[in-house]
Design brief:
The chain is mainly α. It has five helices and no strands. It has one domain (2-82): DNA polymerase, domain 1 (Orthogonal Bundle). It has helices at 2-17, 22-35, 41-51, 55-62, 75-82. 14% of the residues are buried.
Amino acid sequence: MTADIEQIKKKIIYRSNYRGTKEMDKLLGAFTSKYINELNYEDLVELIKLLEIDDNNLYNFYNGLNTNIKFEDNKINKLFKNFKY
């Protein structure tokens, strides 16, 4: 299972650093770097869900603006929302 988690972490790191916009590459890359080794398997699954959201909605969520989707109230979303870059 440890090998699986390491593979998941590598995919998450890659996805967080290559988003499509420089701003989100930097923000999500820094966020992921800070928390990736503190997260358990369930948290990693939630982080994958967060990374599947488009940059515009993520940026709006992070900055407290209106979004087109509803964000769940979970640990990862709270960490991201409160993350200071």
